[in-house]
Amino acid sequence: MTDLTLSLAVIAVFCCALFGWGRIVRWLTAGGTDRGTPPSWAVTMMLGLALLIAVGGVLNLVRLANIWALSGLIALGLGLCVAPWIRRAVDSGLPMPHMPARTEIAARASLLALALAVLIFTIATQLPPALYNFGDDLQKYFAHPVRMLETGTLFGSPLSAMGSESLGGMSFLHGFIVAYFPLTYLNGVDAVFGLFLCLLLIAGFAWRHPALAPAALVAMADLYAINPQYVNISALYMGSALILAAIFVTAGPDEAGAPPPPLALGLIYAALVALKPTFLIFAGLHGLFMIVAVTRTTGGAR
């Protein structure tokens, strides 16, 4: 029970931190204003994840990706997350959030309840696993976040797999686990948190479309049917979550005819490739299709 409670608390903190970082991307893509319809809270979290991975690359470049820097990233994200609520509490003139109808509340509650149920079950059965892949994980990927926290960078030697087999995005995220918890909990990043992000993205989409709540429940159940990489720490669910985010960003409820924000899509594409170079296939095809779609819609690619 203690491990479950701690895991849920850590996931809640990291979700809030990602939302805070995502607000930066929302602010930048809106031209420094709060105009327009913002992306859902789940997509905002994924934008925060993409930005966090980009910042992690800079920190590794200057050899400052240590436990203090990672702690600062979490603290800054939490501050950005709660800042609007503090501002609203101080300034009574700001509008209060819209209260949905009871039917919408029930639909949203059912979606979140399913996501939390899957999360709790996954934590109880897969965190930490009894064994890992002795080939890639134990010989390569376990060493990367440890080296980053000790030296401030993922760079090892010219003979390292870093740069050829991986660009370090997943290892940077693993660093948040290694910094505070035993190494055996590394699979929590993808098998637990990555899966939860996928579920939240589906729930977040149905959040704005209550009529699609039944379909969203089926989609969430289908997602859990994916065979989990129980002994592998590669980016399975994290990559799926970023792919879903890219799709939802391009299908967002923004102004009619407006193309998706290039900054948001660029960050998501970069994060995908940083997690696993093979995701370049999706990023390239999706980006190409977006250019064609924008060209046909607006008369010119932006």
Describe the structure.
The chain has 302 residues and is mainly α. The chain has one domain. It is 67% helix and 0% strand. Helix 2 runs antiparallel to helix 8. It is globular, with a radius of gyration of 19 Å. The N and C termini lie far apart (52 Å). About 3% of the residues have low confidence.
Provide keyphrases for this structure.
302 residues, mainly alpha, 12 helices
Write the layout of secondary structure elements.
Blueprint: H1 2-29, H2 41-61, H3 67-90, H4 102-126, H5 136-141, H6 143-151, H7 169-178, H8 189-208, H9 213-224, H10 237-250, H11 262-275, H12 280-298
Indicate how many domains the architecture comprises: 1
Instruction: For the record, give the distance between the C-alpha atoms at the N and C termini, rounded to a whole number.
Output: 52 Å
Helix content: 55-70%
Kindly name the structural category. Answer: mainly alpha
Shape: globular
Low-confidence stretches: 32-36, 253-257
Order of helices and strands: HHHHHHHHHHHH
How many whole angstroms does the radius of gyration measure? 19 Å
Number of strands: 0
* Main pleated-sheet profile: none
β content, as a range?
under 5%
Compact overview of the structure:
Helix 1 packs across helix 2 (41-61). It contains twelve helices and no strands.
